[in-house]
Amino acid sequence: MKRSALFARGAALVLALLTVGATTLLPTRIREVSKLVEEVRGRRFESAVPASEIDPAALKKFLRGKLVDSFPAAPAETLKSLAVLGLIDQTPDLLERLLDFYASQVIAFYDPEPRRFFVVRGGAAAETLEGGSGELAERLLFSHELTHALQDQTLRLDRRFKSLRDDGDRALALQCLLEGEATLVMVRVALKDLPGADEAAEEALTPLLSAGALEKANAPKNLPDFFVEQLFFPYVEGTAYVRRAVTRGGWKEVDRLWNDPPVSTADILHGDRHPPPATDLLPADADGLARLAPSRFRFLLRRSLPEETASEAASGWRGDRIAFFTSGETFVYLWRLRFESPGAAERFERAMQSVKHEGAPAITRLGADVLVSLGFSETPALPGFPARPAVSRPTSRG
What we know:
This protein is of the alpha+beta class and about 400 residues long. The chain folds into 2 domains: about 10-270, no CATH class; about 295-390, no CATH class. About 50% of the residues lie in helices and about 10% in strands. It is built from 15 helices and 9 strands. The chain has helices spanning about 10-15, 25-40, 55-70, 75-85, 95-105, 125-130, 135-155, 155-165, 170-190, 200-210, 225-260, 265-270, 295-300, 305-315, 340-350, and strands spanning about 50-55, 110, 115-120, 315-325, 330-340, 360-365, 370-375, 380, 390. It has a 4-stranded antiparallel sheet, covered by helices on one side. Strands 1-3-2 form a 3-stranded mixed sheet. A two-stranded antiparallel sheet has the order 8-9. The model is unreliable at about 1-25, about 125-130, about 285-290 and about 395-398 (pLDDT under 50).
């Protein structure tokens, strides 16, 4: 899931940890939690956040629109392209399964288009979690989503994300900043009234509330791991990224990041500002052109390799472009990746030999670049890559 329902997923971090009583949408509670968010974050709301209820059917319709809008192509083509690349296995009715999963995780969310806070009325999550520590869970959930409202009021983030529709890597990096900030505010709201809460308490609580301890156990078994990874990535990696920033310079450092945000998930993963990813790897007018974030091909490698090996092979990434060409059920693609050095490209090339793919793509390395292609008898000439026969490797199924 690339950017769909960006503001609608804070509940996923709390629901598996806490039981929540029936959520009551009271303007007084919104005002109370808004004040806590202002105190923790050091910023004030421009205006009160309007709130209302939404029923589960309307929620699912909302999520469908966000999900479809986030795909770079029609849903069927997008999902097929992920399968062809080896990121997911072919899964029947996958779009509906995704919608059911995402809807099951949401009990409240902030939507930046009407600029309104919503609580799901009688949703499956609320019914399942009735009867417990409702006030604490409500404060956690509301503080996370109201931080998104504060971000939207002060930074107009919806416009930013729409401008990045065709740059998935940069949008995912910005989402990490978005969710990391909201999660850290949520953690500090939770600790605010606890006697003796200090840096050590925050260190212990943050992994729990950023989904690090959930081990993704609540995801349905019939849902590809890729989408679960994409759901949790901004919370886990984003929260770690924002905490490092706050440690360096407090919330002023986070303000600085919003003025000069990360340009790639490489910044999020490795903790330092990297040069902008290379963008001249394929012709700009290629059909179906889209970027893949390094977190995604790290996941691709992890499907067949130990995590440490996969992370090492992906760590030298400096940009990639992929072009898909379709005719009926036939998918052909060119994927060009650039690495920081020929040695890093060679590590990735070796790792790719073990990756599960649908078909048998040809893998070619030239200097610091790697070209992966499928369906070509001869790979087209590209800048720095002469045309040559496409020699496919044996298909690996792990």
